[in-house]
Amino acid sequence: MLSFSTLVDVLFFGLLFKSIINKSLVTCILSLSWSIECGKKRKKMPMFQMQTKLDVNGGGGQVLDLETAVKDGVLGGDVGGLVVYNGVAEKLDLKKMIEELETMEVPSVFICPISLDPMQEPVTLCTGQTYERSNILKWFSLGHFTCPTTMQELWDDSITPNKTLEQLIYSWFSHKYFAMKKKSEDVHGRALDILETLKKVKGQARVQALKELRQLVTTAHSTAKKAVVGNNGVGLISSLLGPFTSHAVGSEAIGILVNLDLDLESKRNLLQPSKISLMVDMINEGTIETKVNCTRLIEKLTNANDFGSENVSSLSLLVGLLRLLKDKRHQNCVLVGLCLLKTICSHESVRKSLVSIRAVPQLVELLPILSNECLELALYVLEVLSAVPEGRLALKDCPHTIPNVVKLLMRVSESCTQFALSILWAVCKLAPDECASLAVDAGLAAKLLLVIQSGCSPVLKQQSAELLKLCSLNYSVTTFISKCKLTRTIQ
């Protein structure tokens, strides 16, 4: 028979054991709800490894203690999938929230190791690993009876809904969704306030209001853009541009407009001569950012129905664009300038104007230092200019045309090779006696043979053969082969 003290000890240790078991069971269940490191590396973890803390920021951020989360109501706090926002209970669709927050970094424990997408209906296998239900069922349907993460054989093929993790996923996305929603509402309201302010203020106050609105629409905020476009903000801002607009107001206004989706009516409004004239002035005299924005905005206006050459044929605009191309410190200036030149040089009057302000030698001199993207644009413009007599003559008279263009054959892309061949053909055909020897000395023959033997289009090969024949007219076969240093190639 047990003594009273022994009985007390038994009862005490029994209660303690029960408490430990209950707590351990809760901890075990919670720890088995998550698979660790479900990213692309899929790092293998030992079976049944205990984990009681969860990084809810996807690594290196806030760590959530699961037991505290249960106690404080973070888990299971949204009863029945309802969340409270502005005092109103809402039922949110998890799939919709995931889609709208797709650019946000999601904690790795929410990611299904199979699809690498956030889980909506997580289920746990007997190995303790968790997957999206549809993904693991598809895995089983393919005849696999292993755990995809650990590759262990399953001793039990049942899957258990992981309601704890599901609730945590829902709570996390709900929190992020409503934070985004609130921020969007704040931005929308602020954009409307600024539009109202612009109707009343002038001078420096107007500049400050425009500056704040530009900040809203240029920080990747679609909400601000929609607010401006949907509340006649484009018309209001466009009305601020005119012959008496200061550059301070104009630069801010154009910085807003260039980031908006403009309809045809808005584009027609901006094509008024006084507004185009203001943009041209700022391309010549504004800051680098203002020059780029004005150039981009004019390019956006070129696809308006009533856009004509008179909008862009002014020498002032063309001179401003050539100045942009000279700014070697800012590659973006060169790119936007060439993009607009490519668009507007389809007008014959623009081509003649460009030749008259010596655009050809400037573009030719730039060829060796341009990026591949800019090279294709510059060669396109030069090819278009070679289609007019003044352009061909300017190309012939520029001493660096042939050597600089020859170097680009088979160097960047097939398009660049095509443009380069067209330019060389136009120049050599204009003055074969003078240009053929220069082209041969620059190594054109070897480049043309390379094009002919390559996988380029038949049109390019034919054009190369004709150009090679044109270059060889003033030479005997032996002399031409020797002068071109092709003896080893032919042998």
From TrEMBL:
Reactions that this protein is recorded to catalyse: S-ubiquitinyl-[E2 ubiquitin-conjugating enzyme]-L-cysteine + [acceptor protein]-L-lysine = [E2 ubiquitin-conjugating enzyme]-L-cysteine + N(6)-ubiquitinyl-[acceptor protein]-L-lysine
Gene Ontology MF annotations: ubiquitin protein ligase activity
Keywords: Transferase, Ubl conjugation pathway
Matches recorded under Gene3D superfamilies: Leucine-rich Repeat Variant (1.25.10.10), Zinc/RING finger domain, C3HC4 (zinc finger) (3.30.40.10)
SUPFAM superfamilies: ARM repeat, RING/U-box
Residues making up the signal peptide according to the UniProt record: none
A single GO BP: protein ubiquitination
Function: Functions as an E3 ubiquitin ligase.
PANTHER family: U-BOX DOMAIN-CONTAINING PROTEIN (PTHR22849:SF6), WDSAM1 PROTEIN (PTHR22849)
Protein name from the UniProt record: U-box domain-containing protein
